[in-house]
Every structure is written in C-alpha cells, then in structure tokens.
Amino acid sequence: MTGPVPNREAILTVLERLLSWSEIARSPQLARFLDYIVRRKLDGDVQSIKAYSIAVDVFGRAVDFDPQADPIVRVQARRLRSLLDEYYRGPGLGETLQIRLPVGRYIPEFIENSEGDEPGGQAPLPPKDAEAPRGPSSRLPMSWYMLAVMALVTATVAYALGEWGRGRDLLAQPGGAPQRPSVGIVEFQDLSVGANLLPQVSGLAIELVTDLEQFGTFDVRYGGDGEANVMPDDLPLNDFVLSGIVRLDAGVVQYSAILTESRTGSVVWNHTLAVPPAEAMTPGVLDGVSKAFALVLGSPRGPLHAAARQMLISGTAEQVEISPYFCRVLFDFYRETGGAVEAERADACFAALPETDRQSAEALAATASLVAERGSPSMAVETSLADRFRIAGVGLERAMDLDPISGFVWEQRARLREAQGALALARGDFASAVQLNPANADALAGFARILALGGSLSEAEPMARDAAEGTPNPPAWYHGVPALLALRDGDLARAIASAERYAEADRELGPILAIMAAQRAGDSAVVNRYLPQVLDVPAFRAKGVLPRLRERISDESLVESIRGALVEAGVPPQALMRAF
Predict the structure, then answer these.
(1) Domain, as residue range, for 301
(2) Is 130 part of any domain?
(3) Are 284 and 329 members of one domain?
(4) Residue 302 CB: number of other CB atoms within 10 A?
(5) Arithmetic mean of pLDDT, 382-396
(6) Does 125 score more than 60 pLDDT?
(7) Same domain membership, residue 347 and residue 282
(8) Measured CA angle at 108 (ends 105, 110), to 5 deg
(9) Does 277 share its domain with 350?
C-alpha cells in the first residue's frame, strides 16, 4: 500500500460535484464506480483497484468473476472516462483540481490546474464533436512512400500469417455453417520517431480490442507487437489480422489501419485517418481513432462480414447450414432493408437454431424486434399489435437479464419503446446502447433520429454524421437526420437527395421531407412526385397526417413546419387534421 494522497478534502469536494452532475448521477453504477476508485486511491489502497475487485464490489459480480470473459469493467470504465472528459469540457471547465481516468487503467489521477484551463499544461482536449475523426472526410491520397511502407508492413504480417492461417478457411466449406470471423489486433508501428512530435500510438490496439469486443459478431484478440509468435499456441487461429502504422506526412499525423486475411495473406481493407499534430498528442485521440476504425470494422457491411454477406447476395445462403452468426447476418440485412422477405428469412433462421442458441440474449432480442415490427409466421394472423408488443417486451426483458451490458439488446428495446410511443424511455435506452457501444452505427442512427424528432437536432448531429459518413454503404434509413440537417443549413440540393434516399425506408416522413426541401428549392417536379405518396399512406388516411406525425415527432416547431409545407403543396386541410 502506498501513502495517502494529499488534499483529501479538496478531492472529496470535487468528487461530490462530479457525483451530483446529472450525467453521472443518472447512472448509479457509474457513480459507485467513480466513488469506489477515488476513495480507494485516497486511502492509499491502489493495489486493490483492479478489474476483479471493481466487478465484485461495484457491479455485484460473483466471486468467480472472470475479467477475460466478462468485459463489464472495461465497458463501464470507457463510459466513465468519456463522461469525465465531457464534464471538464463543459460544466467543470474551470475546475482547478480534476479527477481523470487514464486510458487502459482503473486508478484515477488527481491533476492540479491552478489556471483553471487544461490540466498539467497538457495540450487541450479536442472538442466533443471532433473526438472521432470521420473516415470519408479524413482520407488522404496515399503517396508512393505510404504504399511502400504499407507493402512492407503487409509482407511482414503475411509472413507471420503463413503460420497462423495455414489450412484455415474463412467460412465453412459449402454445406457447412458459416461461423463468425475472428480478428487478431497487433500494435501499430510508430514511424514518426525522430519527428518533432510524439503522437499517441501505444495502446491503440487495446482500444480497438475494447471497442470491437462490444459488437459480439466476431471474436477479437489482442496480438501484442505483431511478431510471428503474437498469438499463444493454445488459442485458435485468426481469420484476419489488423495491423497499422502511424506517421507524419504533409503536416498531419496519419493513422493507417491494414486488415489482412490470414488464409491468403492478402490485404482486404485499409483506411487512413488524418489527425492534426496537436490533437494527435492528446490522450483522447486514441479513443477517437479507434472509434473511427470500429465504425467500419464493426459494421455489418464491413470487411469482416463480406464473405457471409456475399452468400446472401449470390443466393447461396439456402445451401448452407444455419448458425447463430449467420442468423445475425440475416437480421442485420433485414435491419438495413426493412423488407418482409428479409424478416422472414431471419425469423426462420432463428427458429431453426438449437434451443440453447435460441435462448441467447442476442437471439431473444433479435426475434423480439422481428415480432414487434413484422410479426412472425408462427403467430396467429389475428395477433394484435398490442399483443405483439407485449410478446416482444417479454423476450427483451429475458435478453436484458441474460446480458445487461449488450448494446445490441438495449438498442432493440429502444426500438420497441419508440414503436410504442414511449419516446422518453426510448431515448434513455438508445443512450445506454450508445454508451455501451459508441461505434454501433445502427444505435447511433436510431438515437440521432429520436433526438432530432424531439427537437434536439444539434445534439443528434455528430451521431448522425458518424453513422451516415463513417460507415460503409449506409442504408436508406440513416439519411433522415442528414436531410433535416441540410434543411437547417439551407443546403437544398443535399436536403432533397437525403430526403429521397430516406423516403425509400420511411414512407411517412421521407416524402414529406422531400416536399419541404423541394418547395424551398422551387422544384415542383419533386413536390408533384411525392405528394401522392403522402396522401396514400395508410396511417395518414386512418388518423390524419398531423395526428399520426405527432405520435412520432415531439418537436412542435417541426410539426408546424411540416403543416405549412403541406398546405402550400395543396394538401386539403381536413386531411391534415383527421381521417380521409
């Protein structure tokens, strides 16, 4: 045990202010976590601040808790670290004594800052909405030097992969069950040595492992420094290896990730993020870079799932055995399209799984969403919507009991509550889903939508942009909030394009947003194309346009804007207010 920390009373005062801050106070688990680690350090008992003791003492885990099998402490530490950063950028900006949680550790740091700015003379933390550099906007053309370096790295990794991947196929042979892929993540190589800056590099692989573990659709393993013996002999071989380099080029720090397939040794994906030097030297940059990479790698449309998705596209899916992983791929495909055929295929896949797999948290949550949104072939045709919601709710509660820290489960419950019209509860569940997995684009897009329709468009903006701009081939339903943002900014061409894309997924609101944008742009052709679609929506005909929209939109100013646009477009007043 080390000696007690000075300024105990001052630190406890700061702690009380943090615990009373609304963002921490609303999460009793995070509040207990923060109080626990701070008081243990103040008592000089830093040796007990470990994942095991935190899990048992704070989160109520059993004494046989295995930190490797249950990531709750890592996940909650990430949430707490993010909230502390947010606090000291906002309400705690002027604090002269700050409590910080370093990346990769659970022992807090107490930083004195006499000038009330950023602690200890460190470079300032990036603004909140700049924490995660977005992929498309930060890609740079690769110079010959970059290509040469990547080729060298690839050759080195491929040599090691020859031992790891020999004889292993990415998926089962034809007729077998596709299994979820695995990826080993090795430390990025720092090629900026000798430059007049020291970007944050060490620990990026750990951040990526922590981020990608939250998806549950592939296995993730830490691979150390990337030598040929990176993986212990007793671990299964990996389907992919993720490596990378960090270097200074053209006045910016480039973080380049390279995904290599083990079986062939070929590069299947690479991505480069450009980060300003000042930002690259701050501890928070690793979290942002990791999130940007995870938005792509964790996406159902990302490179890790390309082989399974190819089966869906090529029509060979019916020729293989089912597996929990493949059922999830089918469900994610349904989530992108919203189609009845895709829903039926996913439902049939889950129904055909062995009982133990059907009763997993992921399967229960997915099938609950299918029941609520599409019904199920096994249900009676006359099953009412209220009964479907009730059945889905029971399944989601069981899923929540089995895995209370699954962002996927929280997301599905948020969707159910949104469909039920419990918008405040849905907002809270989406917030939990995003906290648990900040790179889950479906949760980000869903949360952004409910925030935007609730009048919090600015709060929704960074999440909507991460989902629509940071992920590959974003589906149509991601484009609703971008349409609203473009309308706000007066970018009418972009507003029309986003609204038309969104109309493919949302028959109610998508055409209305297209009409609003087209009216402002003076494009009567677009108005004339979408106006009949609005008048043909069954829910509008049954209730009236505005009564139905108010079930989804709590921002009255947006409803009024819609009313004015539809009146101008020629919608009869009676159709706006009542059934027609």
Answers:
(1) 135-306
(2) no
(3) no
(4) 23
(5) 92
(6) no
(7) no
(8) 140
(9) no
Report the distance separating Cα 569 and Cα 101, nearest Å.
55
Residue 311 within a domain: no
Share of the chain above pLDDT 70, in %: 82
The encoded tokens of residue 42 equal 């103040």
Which CATH number characterizes residue 192's domain?
3.40.50
Provide the residue count of the chain: 580
Question: Any idea what the CATH number is for the domain that residue 398 is in?
Answer: 1.25.40.10
Residue 12 is predicted with a pLDDT of 93
User: Shortest CA distance to 438 belongs to which of 285, 288, 225, 265?
Assistant: 288
Task: Supply 207's token pair.
Answer: 């951040």
Rounded CA gap, 569 and 531, in Å?
8
Structure tokens at 332: 């994610």
Instruction: Compute the distance between CA of residue 131 and CA of residue 151 in angstroms, rounded to an integer.
Output: 30
Of 485, 486, 539, 488, give the one whose Cα is nearest residue 509: 539
Within 8 A by CB and 6+ apart from 572, the residues are 580
User: 3-state DSSP call for residue 108?
Assistant: coil
The three-point CA angle 80-84-85 to 5° equals: 120
E strands in 167-251 = 182-185, 189-190, 219-222, 240-249
pLDDT at 435 over 90: no
Instruction: Assign 218 a pLDDT band (cuts: 50, 70, 90).
Output: very high
For residues 258 and 394, membership in a common domain is answered with no
Same domain, 281 and 155: yes
**Per-state percent for the chain, helix, strand, coil, to nearest 5:** 55, 10, 35
- Cβ atoms of residues 165 and 222 within 8 Å: no
Angle, vertex CA 31, rays to CA 407 and CA 93, nearest 5: 100
Q: What is the pLDDT of residue 409?
A: 97
388, 417, 437: which is the final residue of a domain?
437
Q: What is the mean pLDDT of residues 77-89?
A: 87
Q: What is the 3-state secondary structure (H, E, C) of 368-395?
A: HHHHHHHCCCCCCCCCCHHHHHHHHHHH
306, 330, 361 — which closes off a domain?
306
Residue 117: partners with Cβ closer than 8 Å, 6 or more residues away: 124
Could you tell me if 409 and 365 are in contact, meaning their C-beta atoms sit under 8 angstroms apart? yes
- pLDDT tens digits, one per residue of 133-153: 333 334 434 444 444 455 444
- Mean pLDDT, the chain, as a whole number? 84
Where do runs of H (alpha helix) occur along 403-476? 407-420, 423-436, 441-453, 457-470
Q: Is residue 419 part of a domain?
A: yes
Using the predicted structure, report yes or no on whether residue 235 has a pLDDT greater than 80. Answer: no
Phi, psi of 220 (to 5 degrees): -125, 135
Rg of the chain over Cα atoms, rounded to whole angstroms, equals: 25
Specify the pLDDT at position 511: 98
Note whether residue 576 is domain-resident. yes
The span from the CA of 441 to the CA of 462, in Å, is 12
pLDDT digits (tens, 9 = 90+) for 437-474: 999 999 999 999 999 999 999 999 999 999 999 999 99
Same domain, 103 and 142: no
CA 563 to chain centre: 34
Which CB contacts under 8 angstroms, 24+ apart, belong to 330-334? 331/366, 331/369, 331/370, 332/217, 332/300, 332/305, 333/300, 333/309, 334/370
